[in-house]
């Protein structure tokens, strides 16, 4: 579904991604793990058109999307829930969700997807009329993921969905990610909770200093001694 080849990204004089190549097969959960500053978020931003690439290629569903605008990439079927939630604090929960469907004109299907999202996250239904800024951190994260789903993506990119959440909410987030995956959505996950991410991932990549340092099945990386020492706190 997604093929990245020899991708390079610069921020001024900083070479953030150095020849990154990776694949996300259709129907899979693929995770990117690594230390802060390794290039995980930059990879997602390049895929979704938010960061300009210096060289290399990004192919999605057989189409070269390198250099395509962010809104054009959303229309092609790629959506992202960014780190820090980035919800609209002055809009209600319902209005935030509808912003995720801004490019859609299938009104009946949009209503069905609202029902689906609130089935995944029942708390959002209870708070339909509340402003996003009045929600708890966990509820805001649910809203951010729900808004991304409202574009009905083929590929859902998630940047640190469990960051700053209490352990119980972290479990809830990963439960919902598995449910989303079961319903046919391909997921590319950047996650600081490497252990939880690798447990649900079909495949994983370890980024270090803007390059791919290791890659393999999620279970293989989870069992790898060097990964356990460096990223799992063991």
- How confident is the prediction overall: mean pLDDT? 93
| CATH homologous superfamily placement | P-loop containing nucleotide triphosphate hydrolases
CATH topology name, in short, is Rossmann fold
**Spatial order of strands in the largest sheet:** 6-7-8-3-9-10
With helices defined by DSSP (H or I, 4 residues minimum), what is the helix count? 10
Number of domains: 1
Largest sheet: 6 strands, mixed
Helix content: 25-40%
The total strand number stands at 10
CATH class: Alpha Beta
Poorly predicted ranges: none
- Specify the overall morphology: globular
What would your notes on this structure say?
The protein is of the alpha/beta class. The chain has helices at residues 40-47, 70-76, 93-99, 107-120, 122-126, 137-149, 167-182, 194-200, 218-223, 225-231, and strands at 2-11, 14-24, 29-33, 55-60, 63-64, 78-81, 155-159, 186-190, 203-208, 211-217. The chain has a single domain (2-39, 50-231), classed as Rossmann fold (3-Layer(aba) Sandwich), CATH 3.40.50.300. It contains 10 helices and 10 strands. Helix 3 (93-99) runs parallel beside helix 6. The model has no long low-confidence stretch (mean pLDDT 93).
What's the helix and strand layout?
Blueprint (H helix, E strand, L loop, with lengths): L1 E10 L2 E11 L4 E5 L6 H8 L7 E6 L2 E2 L5 H7 L1 E4 L11 H7 L7 H14 L1 H5 L10 H13 L5 E5 L7 H16 L3 E5 L3 H7 L2 E6 L2 E7 H6 L1 H7 L3
Helix pairs in contact: 3-6
